[in-house]
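Quick one from the shared queue. A colleague (R.T.) flagged Probable peptidoglycan glycosyltransferase FtsW as missing a structural entry in our internal table.

Convert sequence to structure tokens.
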Amino acid sequence: MKRPKVKMGQIDFTLFAIVMLLVSVGVVMVYSASSYSAFFNPNYNDSMYFLKKQLMWTLLGTIAMIIAIRVDYHKYRKYTNLMMIITFALLVIVLFSKPINGARRWIDLKVVTLQPSELAKYMVVLILARSIDNKGELINSFSKGIIPNLFIGSVFAGMILLEKNLSIASVVMIVTLAMLFAAGAKWRHVIFTLLLMFAAGVGFTLIEPYRMKRLMSFRNPWADPLDTGYQLIQSLYALGSGGILGVGLGKSRQKCYYIPEPHNDFIFSIIAEELGLIGCIFVITLYIIFIWRGILVSLRAKDVYGSILAIGITSIIAIQAVINIAVVSGSMPVTGVPLPFISYGGSSLIFNMFAMGILLNISRQTRNKSDI
């Protein structure tokens, strides 16, 4: 029987506004953080090189988001298997790509470079949302509810781990656990799984010498200030230099070849230096409001599939933001997790904004239209 056409309501405008604010902050800060190095780099000789590319990604991401807002999120169920096969194929193809800094994370398409792990994060969310919805009350069973879903997350995380990308693989597994918890998994199952994940994380850290060096430098970065502790020390200098009000937009000193590629994973350090504590609080507040609205969308979704899908999408952004800010502030070992919507990067921004379109579409189909 043909599914009746769904009557759409209004999107969550607060959520939409927060996303666009974060993207706008990203465009401004990518330009500020990259202008010096781009101007003096003989390959670019253009202070606006990264700004132009980020503006292009922003335009494409906005178009993707608008399209996703208009597509009923239930339609993704029908094409989940096809999208899963495509994503898995990309994760295999990237393993044969040219390594960059010892890792194989990007597929060079000449015009653009594609990072399959950015797609894989959301693919796992789509698969798990459908699986959890289909299982219903079986989610309370460890053997029939938890293990099959953990296996799904583990397969994709394992493929990402082969790229030498433990950070994104960890994000995938944490999001998997968050979705299972939100679906009603028992506390003892969640805690047991969390302990297993922690043990696996320790194991994968121990078997790779460079990860062990990062862990040791986190404990005392000044023990090796010119190698493993260099990035964190320069980041802490940036945070400390900013003070309350910052040194002023565009006036960062740490972006001048002190912090490597400051427009990427360590862009929050430049925000702290140029905009100070006030700027940091502003950005963190935007993420907090985003998480709040994402949870509201999940709570008000009209079905389990939409609710779990919303919590998964929200969790990806929340977990990455927490990890990134913790890394640049020296609260956890250095790892390569970009700051959502703000760090430079095409694949990350486009897939994040497309996912926001899905989240906003869920917000158009709610049980309760009253504001909470």
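The longest strand covers residues 107-108.
The chain has twelve helices and two strands.
Added to the table.
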